[in-house]
Amino acid sequence: MLPELGALLAVAPLNADTAALQRLAVDEDALHKPSAANRVKTFAFLRRLYGLNIQFPAYREFTRLCHLSAAETCVLAGTLAFAREPVLRACSEMVLAVSVGTPLRREDFEAWVREYAPGRYSQAMNVSFSHNLYASFFQLGFLGEAAGKARIRLRRDIRPASVAYAAFLDWLAGLNGLSLLSGPLSRTLELSKEEHLSLLSTAGQQGLMRVAHAGGVLQLDFSAWLRPGETRLTVQ
């Protein structure tokens, strides 16, 4: 649902609350859906996947970074989706294990669904889930355009705000220091240690957060990303 999310963010003011976003999507038809029922359904999907609540630090900082670096919206949205949707996050492990340049088919995702939840779903549901996952990883930039019945595995263009955001979410989940580089969300960026540290340093130079790295010790200070009274929270 990246096109819908992008369309909503494009017309919403920074720090718009859930009620304001709902008015834009449902009452003002900012997403250009054909019926009121479709607008309500679309907004519900977006809220379930992305939160759409500035009281959640994960969503609030996502919107802030999207405004700062619109070119990174796709990667930032993917990281937020991985944080909030366990099935999508679990499937990313399968995708990441496939080498860049290797073809992936919709049937590969169906096989993963069957292994992830053996016997839980009907054949029709397995096929439906696999189509949705296949399309999701294409929209998130992990897969290229279709070539026959497969899509080629791609490596995304990763920039400083995306690296800072993934580290923030892993930090919220309890990780610190160099362990952040291999956190479950930071790992989806597919960076070498050197690339990761370089992009974190650039994020610090850009003023996104405070970064200190010396003598094999990494310190990231995200205190400015939290509001007064907030503490290190579980990712919402």
Question: How would you explain this protein's 3D organization?
Answer:
This protein is mostly helical. The protein folds into three domains: 2-82, no CATH class; 101-153; 160-225, Arc Repressor Mutant, subunit A. It has helices spanning 2-11, 18-27, 36-50, 57-68, 73-84, 86-96, 106-116, 123-139, 160-172, 193-205; strands spanning 103-105, 143-147, 150-153, 210-214, 217-221. The strands form two sheets. The protein has a three-stranded antiparallel sheet with strand order 1-3-2. A two-stranded antiparallel ribbon has the order 4-5. A hairpin with a 2-residue loop joins strand 2 and strand 3 (150-153). Helix 5 packs parallel to helix 9 (160-172) and helix 9 crosses helix 10 (193-205). The chain is globular. The two termini are 19 Å apart. The model has no long low-confidence stretch (mean pLDDT 93).
